[in-house]
């Protein structure tokens, strides 16, 4: 996994570790997913991982932020099968696999967006993604990032099923490491929020996809070792309910 990480932010690493465990659990690893897209790939870590895990012939990375697109173009410049696009357009019945991590919470009319993803997918295609969990955990970082909401478990499941998806599985992640980091995160992001000038939601969203803050200076191997240890706890059924986000998988029937 290390070769796919651009900046080792602990929350992002926990999310990718949970994603890998989920793919193995559902026997999706190394399956043929000829047409793939990721919406809001940011720095492209998840897409890089997907290109290794799946037999992908065509990959579309949809990114609204110009700065992020520039970074993606540099990162995947030698990948002829990867196309960087500026905004998501639902091509009916086109994709076998769609990924969308930490994006839906940025969209005001989220049900319409989820519906469009369903429309873009082929029958038996898989939709994988993640969202921040529980409005009770709303923090300064949510405001800085341009979030409209955090999701409750039933709310997320209902919206995916309302779009037409079946076999919906939700996997909480983040406990206990993110919980332990709450005081530091609160101190760091509250300071940024005080310094920040008034910013609209679109600008905040654009910045959030490529901002890794202090993580840019972290040693990837060291952080990954720590995160892997703590990830063992996030799979414990009762404790997992205390997590900070949901990784989800579902299928278009």
Q: Could you characterize the architecture of this molecule?
A:
The protein is of the alpha/beta class. The chain has one domain: Rossmann fold, CATH 3.40.50.150. 42% of the residues lie in helices and 19% in strands. The protein contains 10 helices and 7 strands. Strands 3-2-1-4-5-7-6 form a 7-stranded mixed beta sheet, with helices on both faces. Strand 4, helix 4 and strand 5 form a beta-alpha-beta unit. Helix 1 crosses helix 9 and helix 4 packs across helix 6. It starts with 9 loop residues before the first helix and ends with a strand. The mean pLDDT is 88. Keywords: Methyltransferase, Transferase, Ubiquinone. This is Ubiquinone biosynthesis O-methyltransferase.
Structure, briefly:
By secondary structure, the protein is α/β, with parallel strands linked by helices.
Topology (elements, then pairings):
Elements: H1 10-25, E1 35-39, H2 45-53, E2 58-62, H3 66-75, E3 82-85, E4 95-101, H4 110-120, E5 121-132, H5 140-145, H6 153-163, E6 166-173, H7 177-195, H8 201-208, H9 220-231, H10 237-240, E7 245-251
Parallel strand pairs: 1-2, 1-4, 2-3, 4-5
Antiparallel strand pairs: 5-7, 6-7
Q: Which characteristics define this entry?
A:
253 residues; alpha/beta; Rossmann fold; seven-stranded mixed β-sheet; 19% strand; globular
Number of helices: 10
Gross geometry: globular
Global mean pLDDT: 88
Roughly how many Å is the radius of gyration?
17 Å
**Largest beta-sheet details:** 7 strands, mixed
CATH architecture descriptor name? 3-Layer(aba) Sandwich
Enumerate the spans where pLDDT stays under 50 for 5 or more consecutive residues: none
User: What is the CATH homology-level superfamily?
Assistant: Vaccinia Virus protein VP39
* CATH class category label: Alpha Beta
The CATH topology annotation reads as Rossmann fold
Number of strands: 7
InterPro entries: SAM-dependent_MTases_sf
EC number: 2.1.1.222
Organism: Granulosicoccus antarcticus IMCC3135
Pfam family, one: Methyltransf_23
């Amino acid at each position: 996994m290390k070769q796919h990480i651009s900046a080792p932010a602990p929350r992002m690493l926990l999310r990718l570790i949970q994603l890998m465990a989920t793919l193995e659990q559902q026997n999706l690893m190394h399956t043929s997913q000829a047409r793939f897209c990721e919406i809001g790939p940011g720095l492209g870590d998840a897409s890089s991982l997907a290109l290794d895990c799946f037999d992908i012939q065509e990959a579309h990375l949809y990114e609204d932020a110009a700065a992020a697109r520039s970074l993606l173009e540099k990162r995947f410049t030698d990948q002829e099968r990867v196309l960087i696009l500026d905004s998501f357009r639902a091509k009916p019945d086109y994709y076998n696999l769609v990924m969308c991590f930490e994006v839906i919470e940025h969209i005001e009319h989220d049900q319409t967006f989820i519906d469009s993803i369903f429309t873009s997918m082929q029958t038996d295609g898989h939709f994988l993604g993640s969202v921040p969990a529980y409005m009770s955990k709303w923090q300064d970082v949510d405001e800085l990032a341009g979030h409209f909401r955090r999701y409750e478990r039933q709310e997320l499941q209902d919206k995916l099923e309302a779009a037409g998806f079946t076999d919906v599985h939700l996997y909480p992640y983040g406990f206990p490491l993110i919980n332990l980091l709450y005081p530091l995160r609160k101190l760091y992001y509250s300071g940024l929020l005080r310094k920040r000038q008034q910013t609209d939601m679109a600008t905040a969203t654009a910045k959030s996809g490529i901002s890794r803050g202090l993580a840019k200076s972290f040693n990837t191997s060291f952080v990954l070792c720590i995160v892997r240890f703590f990830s063992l706890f996030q799979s414990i059924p009762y404790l997992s309910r205390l997590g900070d986000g949901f990784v989800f998988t579902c299928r278009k029937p």
